[in-house]
Design brief:
The chain is mainly β. It has helices at 2-21, 92-96, and strands at 26-29, 38-42, 51-56, 60-67, 70-75, 81-85, 100-103, 110-114, 123-128, 132-139, 142-147, 153-157, 161-165, 178-181, 185-189, 198-203, 207-214, 217-222, 227-231, 235-237, 239-243, 250-253, 262-266, 271-278, 281-286, 289-294, 298-299. The strands form eight sheets. Strands 12-11-10-7-13 form a five-stranded antiparallel sheet. It has a five-stranded antiparallel sheet with strand order 19-18-17-14-20, with no helix packed on it. A five-stranded antiparallel sheet has the order 26-25-24-21-27, with no helix packed on it. β25 and β26 form a beta hairpin. The radius of gyration is 31 Å and the shape is rod-shaped.
Length: 300
Amino acid sequence: MKKLLSIVLALTLIIAVLPATAFAASSKTVYISRNGGKIYLHTGPGYDYEVGSTVKHKAKVTVQDKSGSWSKVKLSSNGKTGWIRTMYIDGTTKELANGYKAIKVSSGKSVSVYSDWKVTASVRATLKKGDTVKVNGTEHDFAKVVVTGSGVVGWVPIRYIGSTVTLDAEKPSTSGNVYHTTASVLNLRKGAGTKYAVIAKLPYGTGCTVLKSSGNWRKVKTFTGLTGWVSKNYLSKQTTARVATHGSNLNIRKKPGMDTVVIGSLKNGTKVTVKSTSGNWAYVSYGKLTGWMSLTWLKF
């Protein structure tokens, strides 16, 4: 009987100490990616629990326990305890606060930018793979963002916020010159000379690249795909084009391609300098901004 009592007592002691040893307390720093630099300290692991205090950015805390996506912490500054989302102390929000972020979504898919951090809120914009945002805050499982280029402010689920990106445009590997025609109407011929048949008449300002030279003649390819010969006397290096999108903004991208990072956008009618082309893409400059724009929406 005494032996049985001893076993029961030993088991009771083990059970009693398990909660105290099941979680090892650790010292952490809180990182808050939001305006105001503070978050609420709740009395339990959930937003439905009462608010007991607040936690400031870079506050030192001791993590005492965890429950799901929540952690119980003790503030080093005043000894208060409470629960906050674990993402504020595991470095997630520290990373969100650094630089511009690429939208993490599959090609062909999109993610909505909401007016509030609730999915029932209205949609202000949609983002695709390669679009970028600046994170200005977090709430629940949403990030408050500013969309690069358009400046739209709204909320995006954190799971769609990807890695940090730089917004410098990738310069073309070759600096092939872009030309435009300077005659009111310029004949495009089959060969290098006036004896060759005219295959098209190019209006003033037609954009093109030079493919070959022969004396005073240049073989060119226009941005609409026409190829032929013109007199070099009616070609001028570089060209000014304007955005022609029938009203909407046109994105400037880091690289040529619809899935590449957006580094800005320009309004319909904005004039840009085209420096080179790659396929259906033009490497352009506008003030200090340089990048790639679709030739489909540029008017020369």
